[in-house]
Design brief:
This protein is mainly β. It has 2 domains: 5-228, Alpha-Beta Complex (Sulfite Oxidase, Chain A, domain 2); 235-344, Immunoglobulin-like. Helix content is 6%, strand content 38%. It is built from 4 helices and 23 strands. The strands form 6 sheets. The protein has a 5-stranded mixed beta sheet. Strands 5, 6, 9, 10 and 11 form a 5-stranded antiparallel beta sheet that branches. It has a 5-stranded mixed beta sheet with strand order 16-23-22-18-19, with no helix packed on it.
Length: 345
């Protein structure tokens, strides 16, 4: 662990943001969580190209410079790993043991994927767009050496805010975050935001790749067909005080964050008495469908000892964070209320 990241796996490198760094509106790049399935590919930004193929009228091969010339835009989005807070589910599902810090917010600059598809002449029969990274490897139970690849429905691929990002927080993308070009899909879990983009393929049949049909799926073990992981679930967490922190009796400001892939956050509640009473927190930001909302709650800390603090969020569609996340085989979308213990001295 350093001041920025808590290492979850050394190789390939996976790390979550240290919770003390999540109080900032924009997560500093060195503190942005890292999720990689395979080793980081060595790509030269000057010579790297992205192929655009499949159900298009004009197949393309675009350099980073070519992409920039299509016109860039800047967007701030919150991104969360689909496995974030997997450790809260019981029995513990398979997968990396993420706790609560695999979520971050950055300012991305890039060209809309839709502009690239329009330049290529996306054919009307296309139903999905597959984005393939230059990273590759052999999953433990996979079909052999494969690249990381995911598909988007055409409507999501063509959305003006789905970006092929070239910059992160005003600087060229770092290697761990997909340099020289990565996908950024607002509101969806991070597995959709394919890094090290090498190939874009418009397809007319549903994509059946390993990371589309065998991973990043909700498999509830009930015999029903698994469903794909897409939009982020409504969720919140406390970032101050931190787990195990000691506070003085009297007024304590509890601060936190809340987000959802379905819409902006409109309500956050906090309980400090075991859940008998939920009280309204104050939202500090206007609701946004792309960016987490900061909130605060004034707590009159009284009786010395250990106290459990909890928070829960509601988004603009009316979805409220549940007490417990719904168990599934791979531990995705774990959005249950996350208690922390705080000590009053």
């Amino acid at each position: 662990m350093n001041d920025h990241l808590v290492v979850v796996k050394a190789a390939p490198f996976n790390a979550e943001t240290a919770l003390r760094r999540l109080g900032e509106g924009i997560t500093p790049t060195p503190a942005f969580y890292v999720r990689s399935n395979f080793p980081v590919p060595a790509l030269d930004p000057q010579s790297h190209t992205v192929a655009v193929e499949g159900a298009v009228a004009r197949p393309l091969r675009l350099s980073v410079r070519d992409l920039r010339e299509l016109g860039v835009k800047t967007l701030v989005t919150t991104m969360e790993c689909a496995g974030n807070n997997r450790m809260a589910l019981a029995p513990l599902p398979t997968g990396e043991p993420w706790q609560g810090g695999a979520v971050s917010t950055a300012r991305w600059t890039g060209v809309p994927l839709g502009a690239v598809l329009e330049r290529a002449g996306l054919q009307p029969e296309a139903t999905e767009v597959v984005v393939e990274g230059a990273d590759h490897g052999r999953p433990k139970d996979g079909p052999g050496d494969i690249p990381f690849a995911r598909s988007l429905p055409v409507a999501k691929a063509m959305h003006p805010d789905t970006l092929l990002a070239l910059e992160m927080n005003g600087e060229p993308l770092p290697a761990d975050h997909g340099a020289p070009v990565r996908l950024v899909v607002p509101q969806w879990y991070g597995m959709a935001s394919v890094k090290w983009v090498a190939r874009i393929v418009a397809v007319t049949e549903p994509f059946t790749g390993y990371y589309q049909r065998q991973r990043y799926i909700y498999d509830y073990g009930d015999g029903a067909a698994p469903t794909p992981v897409t939009a982020m679930q409504v969720k919140s967490l406390i970032v101050s005080p931190l787990e195990g922190e000691e506070v003085a009796a009297g007024g304590v400001v509890v601060r936190g964050l809340a987000w959802s892939g379905a819409g902006g956050i409109v309500h956050v509640e906090v309980t400090v008495d075991g859940g008998e009473n939920w009280q309204d927190a104050r939202l500090l930001d206007a609701p946004s469908p792309y960016v987490w909302s900061s909130w605060e709650f004034h707590w009159e800390a009284g009786e010395p000892g250990r106290h459990a603090l909890r928070c829960r969020a509601t988004d603009s569609t009316g979805q409220r964070q549940p007490d417990s996340g719904k168990w599934n085989k791979y531990g995705y979308g774990s959005n249950g209320v996350r208690p922390i213990a705080v000590y009053i001295r």
